[in-house]
């Protein structure tokens, strides 16, 4: 019977914890989420370092990641071999994918050419680290693809079971209720970029066909950052070279023995070599930083080239479509777009917990630098007036965690009537659906009775709606419930000033916020 290392046990425990937290990052009937998968992001050094470089400020939310980076400098690259959930998934699929002798598809310093430009771009204000962060990749694949498909399959199976068993299915209802309430997503949603998320995840898995932990040793920017820190670790493996009379370590090691010498920065401390060494020679002991052969930092050309690349990436990716910008609505509490992009890790947690299916990943609405960041699409869903879940699960505070009373006053955008589509304006037909659904207690959408002449010459008494800008928070429910098919008669547009709503008295505002409104003069 093959013995299991402590690292392997730790991997399974942390993977189980990750999956439990992932399932808890969901609306389960409570207005509060006390445990979420955001804990893994807050302990992610790549997220922490890129946050500090891009935001130019410190937050205690990212302190665990900085602490883990320091611990890596002391103990070595233990995160990859003991904690990382994506690494554990790769270890589980290794051997399931047919492969012959290892083939080194990726050679040279490509991993540094990924890490250094990412950090340099963050330094120049464009934080793209979340696109290649391994935990973000895994969460997006689960949240956008695996979990929705699982929910659809189980719900479809439950319906099919009724056709087979009829009323006898009710005997299984309690068990289905447990599965539905604890394992399935709360709502059925299709996410844009789901295919891309699946493609990236499957591509990382297929790399195992050519080399174990191929992603980890050759591409992963988090692993590369931890590897740089691990070079300073005083703990070393003895012997550092393959024994002349034995090559067992080469077969056992998933990352480090691609040459005769153990690569300290690539050693993930899985302890397989120590546990299964035929002669019992392998040990890990204190030896000091000087024991590491070679320079402690990448080559100068990689550093300089990475900095220059990051600078140009930060400049080139900031191009945005002004038309798309007018409809780019961010989650409640986000007031500054630049600050939001610097902090957002693109994990998808906010979209997963969104109660009314309002949040979806941006494609190019915010430019390339905004890909995967959350945006509100009112026609597909709206921001629930009493909900604060997105701020609760955001790992970096890009979406602030606000009290319900404060969140209700946060401005997402402003509603604007399109008089060419809205029924009372375009067809002289009464419709106050948007006013009826407006959640603001004083009603941000109101109507006044106006006598109009219909197209056939009849005099009709219309209830003509209008928006009270000082009360509208842009939640999007008006656009969502508009009975028109396709384009709504009322739409929410972004505003230049997202100052929270204040107390309002009177029937009409004296001043209005600047709205990116193509229907100028509609209200």
Kindly describe this structure.
The structure is a single chain. This protein has 523 residues and is mainly alpha-helical. The protein contains 24 helices and eight strands. The protein has a two-stranded antiparallel sheet with strand order 1-2. Strand 6 (445-453) and strand 7 form a beta hairpin. Helix 4 (63-75) crosses helix 13 (221-230) and helix 7 crosses helix 13 (221-230). The model is unreliable at 504-512 (pLDDT under 50).
Summarize the helices and strands and which ones pair or pack.
Elements: H1 6-24, H2 38-42, H3 45-55, H4 63-75, H5 78-82, H6 85-93, H7 110-123, H8 129-132, H9 134-165, H10 173-182, H11 194-206, H12 214-218, H13 221-230, E1 235-238, H14 248-252, H15 272-276, E2 283-286, H16 300-316, H17 322-326, H18 337-343, H19 349-353, E3 359-361, E4 374-376, H20 389-393, H21 404-407, E5 414-417, H22 423-426, H23 433-437, E6 445-453, E7 459-467, H24 477-481, E8 490-493
Please give a quick description of this structure.
The chain is mostly helical and 523 residues long.
N-to-C CA distance:
76 Å
The shape, in one word, is: elongated
Rg for CA atoms: 27 Å
Helix content: 40-55%
SSE class: mainly alpha
Beta-strand portion reads 5-15%
Q: What is the strand tally? A: 8
- Average pLDDT metric: 86
Strand order of the largest sheet: 1-2
Main sheet record = 2 strands, antiparallel
**Tally of individual helices:** 24
Residue stretches low in confidence (pLDDT < 50, at least 5 long) are 504-512
């Amino acid at each position: 019977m093959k013995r299991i290392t402590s690292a392997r046990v730790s991997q399974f425990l942390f993977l189980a914890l990750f999956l439990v937290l992932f399932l808890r990052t969901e609306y389960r009937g409570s207005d509060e989420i006390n445990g979420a998968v955001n804990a893994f992001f807050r302990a992610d050094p790549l997220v922490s370092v890129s946050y500090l470089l891009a935001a130019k400020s410190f937050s205690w939310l990212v302190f665990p990641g900085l602490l883990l980076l320091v611990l890596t400098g002391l103990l070595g690259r233990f995160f990859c071999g003991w904690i990382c959930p994506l690494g554990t998934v790769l270890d589980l699929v290794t051997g399931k994918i047919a492969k012959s002798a290892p083939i080194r598809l990726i050679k040279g310093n490509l991993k540094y050419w990924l890490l250094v430009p990412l950090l340099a771009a963050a330094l120049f204000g464009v934080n793209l680290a979340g696109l290649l962060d391994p935990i973000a990749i895994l969460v997006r694949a689960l949240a956008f693809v695996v979990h929705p498909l699982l929910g659809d399959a189980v719900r479809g199976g439950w319906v099919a079971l009724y056709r087979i068993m009829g009323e006898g299915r009710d005997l299984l209802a309690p068990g289905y209720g447990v599965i539905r309430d604890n394992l399935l997503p709360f709502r059925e949603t299709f996410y844009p970029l789901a295919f891309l998320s699946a493609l990236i995840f499957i591509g990382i898995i297929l790399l195992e066909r050519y080399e174990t932990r191929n992603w980890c040793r050759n591409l992963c920017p988090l692993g590369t950052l931890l590897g740089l820190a691990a070079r300073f670790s005083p703990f070393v493996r003895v012997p550092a070279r393959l024994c002349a009379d034995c090559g067992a370590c080469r077969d056992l090691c998933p990352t480090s023995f691609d040459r005769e010498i153990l690569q300290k920065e690539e050693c993930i401390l899985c302890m397989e070599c120590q546990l299964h060494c035929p002669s019992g020679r392998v040990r890990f002991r204190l030896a000091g930083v000087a024991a590491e052969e070679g320079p402690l930092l990448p080559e100068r050309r990689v550093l300089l080239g990475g900095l220059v690349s990051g600078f140009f990436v930060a400049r080139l990716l900031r191009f945005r479509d002004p038309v798309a910008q007018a409809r780019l609505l961010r989650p409640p509490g986000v007031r500054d777009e630049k600050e939001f992009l610097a902090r957002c890790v693109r994990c998808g947690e906010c979209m997963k917990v969104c109660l009314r299916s309002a949040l979806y990943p941006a494609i190019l609405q915010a430019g390339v630098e905004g890909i995967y960041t959350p945006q509100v699409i009112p026609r597909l869903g709206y921001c629930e007036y009493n909900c604060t879940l997105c701020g609760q699960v955001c790992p970096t505070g890009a979406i602030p965690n606000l009290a319900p009373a404060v969140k209700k006053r946060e401005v997402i955008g402003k509603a604007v009537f399109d008089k060419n589509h809205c029924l009372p304006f375009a067809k002289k037909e009464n419709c106050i659906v948007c006013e009826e659904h407006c959640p603001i207690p004083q009603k941000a959408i109101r109507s006044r009775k106006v006598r109009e002449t219909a197209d056939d010459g009849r005099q009709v008494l219309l209830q003509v709606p209008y928006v009270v800008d000082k009360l509208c928070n842009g939640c999007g429910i008006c656009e969502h419930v508009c009975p028109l098919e396709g384009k709504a008669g009322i739409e929410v547009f972004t505003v230049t000033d997202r100052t929270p709503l204040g107390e309002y008295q009177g029937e009409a505002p004296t001043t209005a916020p600047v709205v990116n409104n193509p229907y100028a003069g509609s209200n």
